[in-house]
Amino acid sequence: MDMKTQPKLALLALAICTSLAAAHPAGAMELESATIADLQTAMAAGKLSAEKLTELYLARIEAYDKKGPTLNTVITLNPKALELARTLDAERKAGKLRGPLHGIPIVLKDNFDTADLPTTGGSQLLKGSLPPDDAFVVKKLRDAGVIVLAKVNLSEWAGGGGSVGGASDPAVLKAGAVPNGSSSMGGQTRNPHDLTRGPSGSSGGTGAAIAASFAQFGLGTDTGGSVRGPSSANGIVGLKPTLGLMSRDGIIPLALSFDTGGPMARSVYDVALALGVMAGVDPADAATAKSAGHAEKDYLKYLKRGSLQGARIGIARDFMGKDAGTDGVMERAIAMLKLQGATVIDIKYPDYLLAAKQPLLILMMSSEFKTQIADYLKTTGPSYPKTFDQLVALSNDPKTNYRAPEKAYALKYTASVALALDDPRYLAAKTQALPAIKAGIDALFATDKLDAIVYPTSPRPATLIVPDKPPTPSAGTDSATSFANETGYPDLIVPAGVTPSGLPVTISFFGPAWSEPKLLGYGYDFEQATKARVLPKTTPPLPADSLAMWR
Asked: Whole-prediction pTM value?
């Protein structure tokens, strides 16, 4: 590091930490800042119970979800949450501790199957649909002792399932512009940092709920950025893992070439802990076979201060320059990476990668959804639609009283452009274009011997629910998130600060396959150095949230 630069970086880091200290007073222990480790310490000491913790989270949902700021994240509240919490408390008292998630309340994006709660994918067409069993990762979490508090809202059919993405006609883009964070089943979810803005998609309900401290952590799904966009817009931690590290069995599919679930939380610690419980081989999902020898049960051991020391980090500036507030946070984050000992190298994505990533994703996603959603619908009861064509017809039938006209249009548009999976154009995309994207990304890592690539998760902060400008075709540099899906590689999202208007900005740590241990270490080191996450101003702590008895 240049000796003249080091004092400037030190002063900058001091300024960052000083400004954040006011939001996190020394010694204060609030529900919104507690990690799972804090909760377990309190429960082990008899100062907290799963029942009390569940009551605290339910009180926040009661105060802020359908009242007050009316975030509207919850589609279905679990009526047996407190009963389950009491059962888990009894187990603890009897000496039966299931593990570090025993008694921890969580929320699930409403495209994860739950045998006891409806799973709708955000569509009113699946209202009341009870799956035959839990999704594989949901079962693993429940076996580990979590309490599913609620199923939460999402962009319907995970956003891309019926989309005008890729269109260039302004009339088409306008007709199919689904409001940010809405679904026909769940309605409109709002961003807790600014109620005029959406929570991003498609895991927007999870992102808003975790930011507002409605549960300890949650699950989202990611096909082109759907864990990471909401993590960024709501200012929380999120992980899109390596494809195959987490089973997709029991998750409503969007495009299985890219789909994965992922944990979302208020700390890197909680994300790492949840990942270790869920990761591993599932015979029902062939993609997980390659995780053998890579999946770990304990990712916490990689959370160490000093992890960034000596790391070679590429900075993808292609995805900056869209918003001055976001760029300001990014420059401070880059300075902090240097201060923590990382070697930082500016990199440039080749033009062919920038040009190809979004068209390739959209072509494959629309085509796969058309076929793969039918496979899922076969598992639903006899009164529900069974094919993609039936979804299109019902959503566009006036008799259905479908509550999302833009989505109805987008589904019809997808029907007009989606390819069959034996179509030569789809096969060329999957077997030739997709490997070319992966090879190009591998070359980026190899050229400068990079451990990770860092970029602003979203080049702009959370966007308005009601746009102030007409929609336009997406540009190649609008977002880098789909590269992680097209390669299958992991991407960790960590809060980095807020814009002058108070909107969250996060940075992404993007790495090669199975590099979760490194990325979690980098993210933890950065998180602990900055403490940059902020509590949304519309959902302040309730009086009972101050857990003074822990101190």
From this structure: 0.94
